[in-house]
């Protein structure tokens, strides 16, 4: 009899530990690795109104990714994406001047997304889709020393406002912990301006510009905690 009671108690404890649910009013905090992979398209670089015949390439970067979500119903949440700053190398995509690495740019892309969860809120596997808005802060943009010696200076990029979309899933490990994976597209468009002062190129403090659609895919793998 005592063994039966103990077995029931252990089973009840084990079962209750595995109870999972997303309920209205829940918060989820996730932290993990986020990779930003630009799918860039740029206009050709222009100096003093003249087309130089090449555009730009922007490298990938991986940083710590953070997000916080709040469930305003059992199947809908609003999520805020944050991260440590991303820094990208900028190269020219056709290099007639032998410029090499052109410079670097750093940005933060906070994004607010509303997500819909397909499965019943007590399911262990929780796939979702979402859409939202992004505002990207771009700063610390600079040419390399070698390009500054060629007369490139005053690099500046505008901040960007655009839309975003994502797919992902949570896999609940218990009543609190979970693992998450997501893929997100963010529309980031900016204009870059600079000055070129190089007599050999016939440029005397000539203004330059290039339009850049960065439009990255953002991939995240993280661990989360629900409360």
Word description of this protein:
- By secondary structure, the chain is mostly beta strands.
- 9% of the residues lie in helices and 62% in strands.
- An eight-stranded antiparallel beta barrel has the order 1-6-7-10-11-13-14-17.
- The longest helix has 16 residues, at 2-17.
- The radius of gyration is 24 Å and the shape is elongated.
Tell the overall outline.
Answer: elongated
Q: Provide the residue-averaged pLDDT.
A: 88
What is the CATH topology? Porin
CATH class group:
Mainly Beta
Helix/strand structural class:
mainly beta
Biggest sheet features: 8 strands, antiparallel, barrel
The main sheet orders its strands as 1-6-7-10-11-13-14-17
CATH architecture assignment: Beta Barrel
Helical stretch count? 2
- Secondary-structure element order, as H and E? HEEEEEEEEEEEHEEEEEE
């Amino acid at each position: 009899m005592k063994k039966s009671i103990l077995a029931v108690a252990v089973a009840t404890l084990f079962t209750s530990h595995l109870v999972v649910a997303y309920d209205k009013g829940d918060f989820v905090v996730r932290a993990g690795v986020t990779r930003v992979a630009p799918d860039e398209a740029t206009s050709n670089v222009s100096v003093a109104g003249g087309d130089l015949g090449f555009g730009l390439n922007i490298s990938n970067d991986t940083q710590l990714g953070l997000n916080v979500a709040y469930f305003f119903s059992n199947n809908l949440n609003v999520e805020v994406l944050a991260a440590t700053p991303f820094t990208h190398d900028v190269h020219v995509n056709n290099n007639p001047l032998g410029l090499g690495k052109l410079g670097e740019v750093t940005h933060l892309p906070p994004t607010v997304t509303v997500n819909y969860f397909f499965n019943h809120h007590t399911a262990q596997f929780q796939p979702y889709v979402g859409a939202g808005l992004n505002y990207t802060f771009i700063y610390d943009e600079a040419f390399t020393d070698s390009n500054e010696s060629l007369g490139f200076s005053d690099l500046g990029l505008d901040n960007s406002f655009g839309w975003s979309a994502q797919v992902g899933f949570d896999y609940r490990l218990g009543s609190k912990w979970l693992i998450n994976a997501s893929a997100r597209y963010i529309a980031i468009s900016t204009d870059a301006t600079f000055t070129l002062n190089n007599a050999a190129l016939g440029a005397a403090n000539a203004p330059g510009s290039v339009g850049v659609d960065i439009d990255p895919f953002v991939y995240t793998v993280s661990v989360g905690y629900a409360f």
